[in-house]
Design a protein that fits this description.
This protein is α/β, with parallel strands linked by helices. It is built from eleven helices and nine strands. Helices cover 41% and strands 15% of the residues.
Length: 290
């Protein structure tokens, strides 16, 4: 496992901490001895000053070598929420987290499409709104998410709720499903804009390229790449503004569970931060078992 896996991460905010109702969170607020230095960092969200782990980097002559190894021991299931702006790398981190920790990955959009395809009652109701060009009401989506969280595999294996809830009302509706950890991926806006504006799609293979970070292999591929209509600087800034407004309200509900992650570094370094926090959570759960 990477060298950054021993973390101590008390949650903090500009208004100070309240004792958490979660026994795991309370455990984690005890005085741990961390092997890593922490530094204060102003959050992108105005009301929160969070702690950022300063990970040591191990240079490799052949570039980063990265292997996700499954957990050897099964403890009490983890309950995790993750939030990140467009192009923050949230999708990549969800894949890595679910691969290592074998959590049930739950994304509201995927649930919506699956229920419509299956012709369930929730799917039928949602399709009626979508066919009229209307947004699916919160109550329908929340019901889908709740039902998925209550499924036996979610209860047995634990879950990773991806990019949801997105609003205060959704968070209140899910108050019975408190997470052990709310992972917040933070990336400066200029980097997010650069990541989005540089994205290109290969319509033949479906592969996503980036003109700077992952350029096409040949001139032939480069010539056929297309750009999404909303992957422009103006439109992405508007999407980011909406995202930050929505997340700010959600953070007030989960302030005792927030773990802020520097998402501007490589995906390996980002996962090392997350992996360390989840590893410590599992250890805490194990210690609390009778």
């Amino acid at each position: 496992m990477a060298s950054c896996c021993s973390l101590s991460f008390p949650t903090v905010s500009s208004k100070g901490n309240k004792p958490s109702s979660s026994p795991i969170s309370s455990y984690l607020q005890l005085p741990f001895t961390s092997h890593l230095p922490f530094s204060k960092k102003k959050s992108l969200y105005s009301n929160h000053t969070l702690l950022q782990p300063q990970c040591r980097k191990t240079p490799s002559p052949d570039g980063p070598s990265f292997l996700v190894v499954g957990s050897a021991k099964k403890q009490e299931p983890l309950r995790v929420m993750i939030s990140g702006a467009p192009a923050s790398g949230k999708g990549t981190q969800c894949e890595l987290i679910t691969k290592k920790y074998d959590l049930v990955h739950i994304a509201a959009g995927d649930l919506l499409r699956a229920e419509i395809a299956a012709g369930t009652e929730n799917g039928r109701r949602a399709k009626e709104y979508m066919d009229k060009g209307q947004l699916v009401p919160n109550e329908i989506v929340v019901t889908m998410v709740k039902e998925r969280l209550m499924c036996p595999d979610s209860q047995e294996k634990g879950w990773l709720l991806d990019g949801y809830p997105r609003s205060l009302s959704q968070a209140v509706a899910l108050k019975e499903f408190q997470p052990d950890l709310f992972i917040l991926l933070e990336v400066p806006e200029d980097i997010l804009v650069e990541r989005v504006v540089g994205r290109r799609l290969d319509p033949v293979t479906g592969r996503i390229y980036h003109l700077k970070y992952s350029p096409p292999e040949t001139d032939e591929i480069a010539a056929r790449l297309t750009q999404r209509f909303d992957d422009t600087e103006e439109k992405v800034k508007l999407r980011l503004h909406t995202h930050h407004q929505n997340v700010e309200s959600v953070l007030s509900i989960y302030k005792d569970f927030i773990f802020q992650v520097d998402g501007s570094v490589s995906k390996e370094e980002v996962f090392t931060q997350i992996d360390g926090a989840l590893t410590q959570l599992l250890e805490a759960k194990e210690d609390l078992e009778p």
